[in-house]
Amino acid sequence: MDRLRAELSELRARLDKSFSPDTALNGLQSDVPSAGHCAAAAAIVWETLGGSLVSTNIGGMSHWFNRIQVDNQLLDLDITGDQFGYPAVQIKPAEELYPYTRERSPDELNDETLHRAALLARRAGFFKIAEALEKRRQQIQSRSAKSLLSY
Asked: Which of 43, 48, 85, 128 has the CA that lies 20 to 30 A from 91?
């Protein structure tokens, strides 16, 4: 678990230098740089470590984070919890980090979130991750265009 915490802390440190209003949800500006970045950051972690995307509701706001299997333990990971007053990097057994969680499909990452995630990853120097996110975004755009043509 120490290695995982170190990897997530390094990832978060690189993202800290790249968080900005244009990578936050709806251009959100806050005293906490990670505010509005949970889905974009979760997409980056998902592309980096695999596992699942997970969401919950905190203070009336949807919050996305990650769930991965490490050895025989299922863990929840959050690298943007500081926007709610929690530590920036959190790791706990699944379902212990936040109540009322639900796993989300990667297909639920919309075009706007994938755009923000790719931009954030690129700025943080995660070029392969940015490429993968941009490819996923193009696939969504292609599906949308095909569905419009079928009407």
From this structure: 128
In terms of Cα–Cα distance, which of 120, 102, 115, 113 is closest to 53? 102
- What is the 8-class DSSP label of residue 20? -
CA dihedral 130, 135, 136, 141 (to 10 degrees): 130
Q: How far is CA 149 from CA 69, 112, 141, 146, in A?
A: 40, 21, 12, 5
Order of strands across the sheet with 52-58? 90-93, 73-78, 61-70, 52-58, 102-104
Q: Give per-residue pLDDT as tens, 85-143.
A: 999 999 999 999 998 999 999 989 999 999 999 999 999 999 999 999 999 999 887 87
> Could you state, in order of their start, the residue ranges of all structural domains in the chain?
2-149
Phi, psi of 57 (to 5 degrees): -120, 125
The whole-angstrom separation of Cα 28 and Cα 16 is 15
| Strand 90-93 versus strand 102-104 pairing type | unpaired
